[in-house]
TrEMBL record:
Catalytic activity reported: L-cysteinyl-[protein] + hexadecanoyl-CoA = S-hexadecanoyl-L-cysteinyl-[protein] + CoA
Domain Palmitoyltransferase DHHC: start-end pairs: 168-290
EC number assigned by the record: 2.3.1.225
One function term, GO molecular function aspect: protein-cysteine S-palmitoyltransferase activity
Transmembrane as UniProt keyword: yes
PANTHER family in UniProt: PALMITOYLTRANSFERASE ZDHHC16
Ranges of compositional bias, category Basic and acidic residues: 385-394
Acidic residues bias locations: 395-406
Region: Disordered, residue numbers: 1-33, 383-412
Name by which UniProt lists this protein: Palmitoyltransferase
Location of this chain's protein in the cell: Membrane
Membrane topology: Multi-pass membrane protein
Species the sequence originates in: Rhodotorula toruloides
PROSITE patterns: DHHC
Length: 412
């Protein structure tokens, strides 16, 4: 018999336990992700293969056809070198960032997936899913209660809870959800600081562990596309004007690579600028699109049910949550949370390294937190006052109706 987890009492979102030193969490690996069959892995890897094929074609058109076959043979080595150096670094950084974003993965919540891993591995191997899991279920249930009790008793500083004020717990992964973590329905795992699911990264997610590489891949793709298209178009026009039959002799690979550079450079570059804006605000795509009151607003006290709020009061809470982002520490510090600290700033643009922290707890803007607490208390106090006036008005109506009914009896 599978034991039923007892519900825990609701806790306010901003009622914090005392700070304690937590043990550093192990760095996530791709081994924690969902087991997949070989055929599915190959199918999901095809979009990333397409990306590297485009990069390979750009390298052929720019490095080999333009710089080596044309400029070096035309005795212009200095111009070829000046073209080659920026392109080579952008090409390496772009390809390396795409690969690291795929290889690193978004970062799976520790323990997520162990609940179903045995059944999934059995299904992939064709053995079946009927396994003896009763002991494992009981062990995980005891561990779940222990983790939730530790968090309530003063462990990790949890700021996000469910709408009813209880601790966020993923029943699919059977682990408590850290702040900013979400369950991906495609990966079937909880991802640390999940941004979105990206099919271009081998069917994986963009999250805490690979968000830096995802940003670098977007930016370097924009830089590489625009830079290569400008140079190739310039050299293509010069080639056509230099020879009598230049239009017929011009390499078609230059024109095709320049056209692809414009398309992908502008489209992906604009997408990268949007994510730069989100990084400067310390928001994920999920946090920017979902209702903000589930992230940073006090859960209603037991005496103030949330359904008693008027639409205008709900809008006021939503505006406050968007205005006072509790994770916004200023654009410089926000970018350090993605790319790294001050000491190794020169690694910010390189496709290696880890972001600071463990992906489960994040620095908080205490001033914004205090503002949210004040506004939330004002809203619920206003709602309580409105209910009190409504209750008084109803009691007054009841007394007046009762006096009207008793009047004729007294006269009689």
């Amino acid at each position: 018999m599978i034991p039923i987890r007892r519900p825990l009492p609701a806790q306010p979102l901003l009622s914090f336990p005392p700070e304690q030193l937590a043990k550093p969490a192990p760095l996530p690996t791709r081994e924690d992700e969902r087991p997949r069959s070989t055929a599915l892995k190959v199918l999901l890897f095809l979009p990333l293969v397409f990306v590297f094929c485009l990069l390979g074609f750009a390298a052929y058109a720019f490095l080999w056809s333009l710089c080596i076959e044309y400029l070096l043979h035309a005795h212009r080595p200095l111009k070829a070198l000046l073209y080659l150096l920026p392109f080579s670094w952008s090409l390496y950084a772009c390809g390396g960032s795409f690969w690291m974003a795929y290889w690193r993965g978004g970062g799976i919540v520790p323990g997520a997936g162990e609940w179903k891993r045995g059944d999934e591995e059995a299904r992939i191997a064709g053995v079946g899913v009927k396994r003896e899991v009763r002991g494992f279920v009981e062990e995980r249930a005891e561990e779940e209660e222990g983790l939730l009790a530790a968090e309530e008793g003063g462990g990790r500083r949890m700021l996000q809870v469910k709408s009813d004020g209880s601790v966020r717990f993923c029943r699919k992964c059977n682990v408590p959800k850290p702040d900013r973590a979400h369950h991906c329905s495609s990966c079937r795992r909880c991802v640390l600081k999940m941004d979105h699911h990206c099919p271009w990264l081998g069917g994986g997610c963009v999250g805490w562990a690979n968000y830096k590489f995802f940003l670098l891949a977007l930016w370097y793709t924009g830089v590489l596309g625009i830079y290569s298209s400008v140079v190739l178009f310039h050299e293509l026009v010069a080639f056509v004007g230099e020879y009598d039959d230049g239009f017929e002799l011009a390499p078609i690979s230059w024109a095709l690579a320049a056209l692809l550079g414009v398309i992908f450079g502008v489209a992906v570059g604009c997408f990268g600028l949007y994510h730069l804006y989100l990084a400067c605000k310390n928001r994920t795509t999920i946090e920017a699109m979902e209702h903000p009151t589930s992230l940073a607003i006090l859960t209603p006290p037991s005496s103030h049910p949330s359904h008693s709020l008027t639409p205008s009061q709900r809008r006021r809470l939503a505006r406050a949550a968007r205005t006072y982002n509790i994770y916004d520490l200023g654009w410089r510090e926000n970018l350090r949370q993605v790319f790294g600290g001050r000491k190794r700033w020169w690694e910010w643009g390189c496709p290696w390294g880890w972001p600071p922290g463990d992906g489960q707890t994040f620095p908080i803007n205490e001033e914004h937190l205090a503002q949210l607490r004040r506004i939330t208390e004002e809203v619920y106090a206003e709602a309580a006052a409105g209910r009190h006036e409504e209750r008084t008005y109803e009691l007054g109506d009841d007394e007046s109706s009762a006096s009207e009914e008793d009047g004729p009896v007294r006269r009689a």
